[in-house]
Amino acid sequence: MMVRNVVMLMLFVTVIAPIILYTDRLASIHTSSSSSSRDEFAQDVTAFPFNAQTGRLNLLPQELSTLKEPIGVVYSDNSTTSLPETKESEASTNHSHQVSARVLSTTTNEQDLSPKKDNPIVQVTQTLEQGNQLLADSGAKTATSEQNTNNASQNTLDQQSTQTSIKVDQRKSVKTLSEKNNHETTIPDGRVRHLKDQLIRAKVYLSLPATRNNPHFTREIRLRIKEVQRALVDASKDSDLPRNANDKLKAMEQTLAKGKQIQDDCAAMVKKLRAMLHSMGEQLRVHKKQTMFLTQLTAKTVPKGLHCLPLRLTTEYYSLNSSQRNFPNQERLEDPLLYHYALFSDNVLAAAVVVNSTVTHAKDPANHVFHIVTDRLNYAAMRMWFLVNPPGKATIQVQNIEEFTWLNSSYSPVLKQLGSASMIDYYFRTHRSNSDSNLKFRNPKYLSILNHLRFYLPEIFPKLNKVLFLDDDIVVQKDLTGLWSLDLKGNVNGAVETCGESFHRFDRYLNFSNPLISKNFDPHACGWAYGMNVFDLEQWKKQNITEVYHRWQKLNHYRQLWKLGTLPPGLITFWKRTYPLDRSWHVLGLGYNPSVNQKEIDRAAVIHYNGNMKPWLEIGIPKYRNYWAKYVDYDHMYMRECNINP
Questions:
Q1: Which residues lie closer than 8 Å to 324 by C-beta, 6 or more apart?
Q2: SS3 278
Q3: Other Cβ atoms within 10 Å of 41 Cβ, number
Q4: What is the DSSP string of 427-438?
């Protein structure tokens, strides 16, 4: 019994005690590790990259080959819209996969195993010590590496997301720009134009021999032509087309496709199209000429209301007694210290607007005197209007041109020319083919001596020093008294130049192929405008301007130097005798140009409706009419009786 106890004690001392001793040591080593190390160990063991160095975690021989985790490619939401396109993106993706991979098993090659056969307990303790040391060292490295790689991966993903969003935005912007360009390039009223083009093509097919030899196709295309013509009856834009216009367009397109298959002679098609093009060109030329003629006719025609007004006023004038027909303040008519205006017109309403607008903006209306000269037909009406509608404190004078006994054909060459048979034949000939191509110069207003009175101002106003000449198609917007204080520097005429446009130079109005013109004038000299002109009558008399005018009128007896009108002889008569005024004094073009600068109109002292589109005519430009109409009292008794409305 004693022996057995001794043997058991020896066995405990030699075998079991070392095991317990080393086991306690292992526990103490494991306990000494911090809780953070245990966590890092648990996390980092599964985070080793594939090419990392592995330690000896067991005593068994490790396999030569290592297990590799299949690469799982995970795309973000943004990346689904765009596949990797560059090598750089592929490299960053592979790096991301490498970092995020997990080691399934860690082994070492057989050559790393120790050849020694040490004590198993020693091997276990050494292995555990090496493992803990390796894990402690590699834990920090792996944590740092993992943080860096995670940051790099995040940056890569952010870059990919940013690039993807930029590409998406670029696609959206390109799409938006494409839609905008398509919208801008859309032809307005495209369906109407398409139907008209189809109609022309159908008529061409119908006239070709191949179509006439096919009765079935002929009936079909004639039916389509009638349908399209009915759709285009009153349609000038797409909104005017009927609802079934698209169906008719498609049906016609199908029929034209059949016609294209039937035709086998392209030369006949080309010949027919050329003939149609020539015919359309001739028709366009004729229509343009007719349009010009009708426009001129409309401009020369007096509206019914404006024809009624002078008749009504004339009747009232002759019902007055002689004492009621006189104007007040007649002693001011020849006072050179006052502001005198010359207005030559046969249009009662137009003259009234000129006077009203001038007086409205005058600082001291009592110092303004208006001299109106009209013809015998409108003399009574003109006087009656201003007797009933006096211009405030301003002075008014109405004269009859028939009272100027000094103005006769023996004194004025232009009167002699206007009464000649050739001149009358020029204006009233019935054969249009022989008439002047420019109908503007065939306006009968040039037959009126009222248009030429502007060249006889010193004879009409012998006691005045300065006169402001106004046309009857102007509207005054500011006070004009500053014009009388201007120094014309020895010139006779003060006018606004119009050479901002190339066609307002001398070669536009004068015939420079004639040596008399080419030797005396510059074709590129700047033209100027009638309508608002300051005339120094003292310099006029001193330089004998009326005689200059007469001399050139005699030279132009056969209209070889210029066409009819007053501006060409004015350019010649006042050559090098015209003082240029500031453009803000006189703005032109409201009678023909719908694009006059609005700022220029607003700051202008005088606006001029030169051209055919006068504000009292129906063809007047609507947006400019109110500047004129606001000086007309449409509620006046005579205006209502003649049905004159704004």
A1: 387
A2: helix
A3: 16
A4: HH-S-GGGS-S-
Residues above pLDDT 70, as percent of the chain: 68
CA dihedral 483, 485, 490, 494 (to 10 degrees): 0
Give the integer Cα–Cα distance in Å for 449 and 374.
10
Distances (CA, A) of 413 to 136, 287, 404, 409, 432: 126, 38, 16, 6, 28
Radius of gyration of the chain (CA): 52
Q: Give the 3-state secondary structure of residue 405.
A: coil
Residues 6+ apart with CB under 8 A from 414: 449, 452, 455, 553
Across 21-35, 102-116, 590-604, least confident range: 102-116
Q: Distance between CA 592 and CA 642 in Å, rounded?
A: 27
Q: Is 573 left (phi over 0), alpha (psi -120 to 50) or beta?
A: alpha
Contact between residue 73 and residue 97 where contact means Cβ atoms under 8 Å apart: yes
CA separation for the pair 42, 37 (Å, rounded): 8
Three-state SS at 581:
coil
Nearest to 391 by CA among 413, 358, 438: 358
- Residue 93 contacts by C-beta under 8 Å, 6 or more apart in sequence? 73, 84, 156
pTM above 0.90, yes or no: no
Order of strands across the sheet with 466-470?
A: 395-400, 368-374, 339-344, 466-470, 532-536, 493-495, 578-580
What tokens appear for 573 in the block?
A: 């008569």
Cβ atoms 57, 124 nearer than 8 A: no
Contact 107, 54 (CB under 8 A): yes
DSSP E strands in 3-110: the ranges are none
* CB-facing half-sphere around the CA of 400: CA atoms within 13 A: 10
Instruction: Give the highest mean pLDDT range of 64-68, 205-209, 339-343.
Output: 339-343
| 3-class DSSP state of 510 | strand
